[in-house]
Amino acid sequence: MVDILNPQLGERVFDPACGTGGFLVNVIEHKKKLFKTPKDIEKLQDNIHGIEKKPLPHMLAMTNMMLHGIDVPSNIRHDNTLSKPLKDYGPKDRMDVIITNPPFGGIEEDGIEKNFPKKYQTRETADLFMALIMHLLRADTGRAGVVLPDGFLFGEGVKTNLKRELLKEFNLHTIVRLPKGVFSPYTGISTNILFFDKGEPTKHVWFFDHPYPEGYKSYSRSKPLRIEEFDLEKKWWNNRKQNEYAWKVSLKEIEDKKYNLDFKNPHSVDIIHTDPDILMQDYEIIRKELIATRDLLKKELMSALGNN
Fold first, then answer.
1. CA 293 to CA 178: how far, in whole Å?
2. CB neighbours of 201 closer than 8 A, spacing ≥ 6?
3. Strand partners, 204
């Protein structure tokens, strides 16, 4: 995502849900390649911004910044990004690049939705973050890469309002559809990376169906998604043609589907496995993931109870 967005040295970069600072660390390393004078480190420090709600990830994000050359990471704040009313963000808060994987599947505390215009009022965390991201992007250079679940693509209500404005006010040029298991064992929810620029309306959307590596049927802790896999997208990015992974959808097709962005790969064929051995292997993978998720939830619950 950082390579594709290509943040430049003087550009302001923001992760509104930065966690331990993974995206921002990659931005720092990317920008360091552009250094020409000693003063460039000052530009770097002034233009890296992040907010994290939870205390421990925030502390780790601060540490991460210091380990990567940001001696005083004052722009990495411990706060709930969504607690500030949208109308209170002014021109000085605009960002050139926003790169984030906002929390999804969560619900905000009662009243947070009142910080947003009525058309965006919901308690679903990912939707509120999306409204904030769209609002904060700078009009001329603003661009974003955001990880969102499948539910955003086909959801209705507030999600439809967000997608309508996204297509009208932004160029949603690419959606990378990630395979299942990317965030396993924490969640089995299918996810996507949305890339969009502010300023011009969308005419068409390119979809890229990221494939599993050869021999994989799913990702796991022992077989995680690797950065090298995205060489496929990078090679295609500046020379876009329809192929077995990539296809293009017009704005009219999206409007005809009432802003449902859940377009499947027209080149793929669903394979139904009937071999009992293959079914048992798939079952065993799912069973292990469920056990790992249960144990993780149990550990977090016990920790929370202990803190109380």
1. 20
2. 167, 168, 169, 170, 171, 251
3. 250
Burial of 287 from C-beta contacts in 10 A (0-12 / 13-18 / 19+):
exposed
Neighbour-count burial of 30, counting CB atoms closer than 10 A to its CB (0-12 exposed, 13-18 middle, 19+ buried): middle
C-alpha to C-alpha distance for 69 and 247, rounded to whole angstroms: 41
Cα(177)–Cα(194) distance, integer angstroms? 9
- The DSSP code sequence of 179-221 is PTTTTTTT----EEEEEEEESS--SEEEEEEPPPPTT-SS--S
* C-alpha closest to that of 187 among 257, 290, 261, 115: 290
Least confident of 55-59, 164-168, 179-183, 235-239: 179-183
| pLDDT tens by residue, 66-84 | 999 888 899 999 999 999 9
Q: Are 24 and 48 in contact (CB under 8 A)?
A: yes
Q: In this predicted structure, what is the pLDDT of residue 82?
A: 92
HSE-up of residue 255 (Cα within 13 Å, Cβ side): 9
Q: Is 18 exposed, middle or buried (0-12, 13-18, 19+ CB in 10 A)?
A: buried
Average confidence (pLDDT) over 86-105: 92
